[in-house]
Amino acid sequence: MAAGPPLGCLAAADRNAGLSGRKHVPSIARRLFAPKAGGELDAGGGVQSGTQEINGESPQRASTMFRAWWVIALAALVLFGAVGAVFRAFTVDDAFISYRFARNVARGLGPVPNPGERVEGVSNLPWTVLLGAVARAGVAPERAAPVLSALCGLLCVAGTLGLVAWRRHPAGEMGRLPLALGACIVAGGAPLALWSASGMETSAYALAIVVTLWLVHDTTLRRGISAGVVAALRPEGILLAGALLAERSWRHRPAVRLGRMVAGVALVLVPLVLFRIFYYGDVVPNPVHAKAPGFAALGPGILYVTKLLLSYPLLWIACLRRVPNGSSLRRRAVGLVLVQMVFTVWVGGDHFAGHRFIVAVWPCLALAAAEAGGLGFTTRSRALAVAAALVGALGLTLVLVPDALLPLATPVGSLGRLHLPLAQHADRLAAELRHAGVAALGVAAWLVGAAATRLQLSTTHGARPRLPASPLVATLFALGVLVPQAWDPQLRMCRQADGASRYGRIVGTWLHGAAPATTVIATNAAGALPYAADLPSIDMLGLADRTIAKSRPDVRQWVGHERGDAAYVLGRRPGVIILGGAEGALEPWPFPGDLQLAMHPEFRRDYVASRVPLHGPDGDFDFVFYRRRDSAGWALGRGAVDAGVERP
Predict the structure, then answer these.
(1) Cβ(283)–Cβ(273) below 8 Å
(2) How far apart are CA 194 and CA 197, in angstroms?
(3) What SS3 class is residue 459?
(4) Quick one: which of 81, 236, 290, 469 has the fewest CB in 10 Å?
(5) What is d(CA 179, CA 185) in angstroms, rounded to the nearest whole number?
(6) Handedness of CA 561, 530, 128, 278 (dihedral sign)
(7) Could you tell me if 203 and 153 are in contact, meaning their C-beta atoms sit under 8 angstroms apart?
């Protein structure tokens, strides 16, 4: 079967335009905007039964739709840039772990956290090696990564719009409406925009999925290679790659088709796995060992997915709706969403703000919304009005009196492995409930629009009319998805870099100038702080340390923070131990490593607490750390004090 039209054909001329004296029409118009009545592209790139070739249609209509695609695409890219500008300062501490590996690649030391210490402490080795190549050319990883991830986000938006146009809604007369709706969802969604600004591999991962969807009818090496890239970029990518390659049936030479695609995957994955085995001595990245997925993580995972459902209820409704004559691409997209959510529950969700685990399938959600979000209902308008009233009443209650519902949130909050009494999280929980209420009001408004459309058409065409896509319903759907994002407390937190990266860069810069060059730093914040300090470090949470990653987990702790081994850390005789976050703490945080160190007699005997005043992004703060008593050569500077003497 022929491959789907690549984005590069946007400027290609129609090779058949001269036949029969037809007016010139770009080939993208032939492939994207040929009127459809429920069919899809066949093996030769034409249209299956129930469709009409552009030969039987006016070339002017195809050219008009072609221009409409460009207008909508440009508007979507502008919208994506505007949303991304809100989150332009966003990054996370884990991004600097990749930057540290990339810098060592540029220095000729290899993809390692410390010279001579071979452990794959990143989950995105291809992305890290790419940053290392860029750093080798003279561009610092922290400068190149946000640009590359933003570029991947832009391509992801454009590729998704191409998919919407290629597999647009069966209602040919409303062809522009699904395209516009899909554009609003994929470009206006904050998760894709903010993670495209983060410098992480997240947007590149989503782009690889979009490219593989473009090749959905390709049974050559290209499809397998694209799926292999998906599997290589993230550990869970192997699950989505398998779903992307799944076919209901191979009617013609199935063994040959399967062999081609498997060979394409092998071309990418086999060299990567062999490199891991011979260089790192492991088959999977070290963070896979450091995190503790399984039954113990189901509670936090269910809570994480529930928050996603409450944040974007209309998108999940669009996934679940039955669409008459819906495209197979939509079914594949919904399948990918399901696979991603099952994985998210299994690993316990994510501790980062910004809904990171939804980004990979955000284009899939936009595809589902483009086909289903603008459709009306065959349900009677009275039933739709009742449903809108009930959902609206719930939404108003959550918005106006969220505090009254806090007691009901107590058993749910316990799934988040909170270490403080729930009352101390009351403000955050109230904000979450208020945001869920605004999202519910968006659903109610969408139902009201559907009821109004149903009533109007039933008056005109009878009791059970055929309901086409409605501009009113589509508009209310888009607003119901995008507007509640302004009330999302998680997204508000992402308007600046996370605390570990903000403080870590300042603390690391100070340590670089104050500590001896041979000092080893042990810290929980293993990203920006060691990167700025440019000193050997021990990741006390185990992401970049093989021994700690394989220690026994304490599943009562936060997801991704379950590992620790104080005896191992002390055995390496670090010159600096930093408890808590990047700014340090006198008392241990509820991390296994911190708690074990606080109780260890060797730590109490050999380390003394010190406090240094520094200027941070939010004003002055005290950097607190534990320094080995027998270490010498420090340039502590003015204002440094022995915190152990003043410790209350």
Answers:
(1) yes
(2) 5
(3) helix
(4) 81
(5) 10
(6) negative
(7) yes
The type of residue at 373 is G
Q: In what order do the strands lie in the sheet with 641-642?
A: 537-539, 521-523, 576-578, 619-628, 607-616, 641-642
Which pair of tokens denotes residue 504?
A: 């870590």
Question: Taking every pair of C-alpha atoms in the chain, what is the biggest distance, in angstroms?
Answer: 93
Question: E strands within 35-84?
Answer: none
Confidence label for 444 from pLDDT (cuts 50, 70 and 90) = very high
Query: Which of 181, 76, 68, 83 shows the shortest CA–CA distance to 476?
Result: 181
DSSP 510-550: HHHHHS-TT--EEES--SHHHHHHTS-EEETTSTT-HHHHT
As a residue count, the chain comes to 648
- How far is 307 from 431, CA to CA, in rounded Å? 12
- Residue the block writes with tokens 């106006």: 400
Q: 233-281, pLDDT tens digit by residue? A: 999 999 998 888 876 445 555 777 778 888 889 999 999 999 999 999 9
Q: What is the mean pLDDT of residues 497-502?
A: 91
Task: Give, rounded to a whole angstrom, the gap between the first and last alpha carbons of the chain.
Answer: 74
CA dihedral 494, 496, 499, 505 (to 10 degrees): 140
Q: Which residues pair with 539 in a beta bridge?
A: 523
Show Cβ contacts of residue 571 under 8 Å, excluding neighbours closer than 6 positions: none
Amino acid identity at 576:
V
Q: What is the pTM of this model?
A: 0.86
Q: Classify burial at 198, counting beta carbons within 10 Å of its beta carbon; exposed 0-12, middle 13-18, buried 19 or more.
A: buried
Q: How does pLDDT run across 121-169, given as a tens digit for each residue?
A: 999 999 999 999 999 999 999 999 999 999 999 999 999 988 888 754 4
Residues near 364 by Cβ (< 8 Å), separated by ≥ 6? 209, 213, 333, 334, 336, 337
Question: What angle, 0 to 180 degrees and rounded to 10, lies between the N-to-C axes of helices 471-482 and 313-320?
Answer: 130
What is the phi-psi region of residue 536: left when phi exceeds 0, alpha when psi lies from -120 to 50, beta otherwise?
A: beta
Scanning 202-246, the segments in alpha helix (DSSP H) are: 202-214, 221-233, 237-245
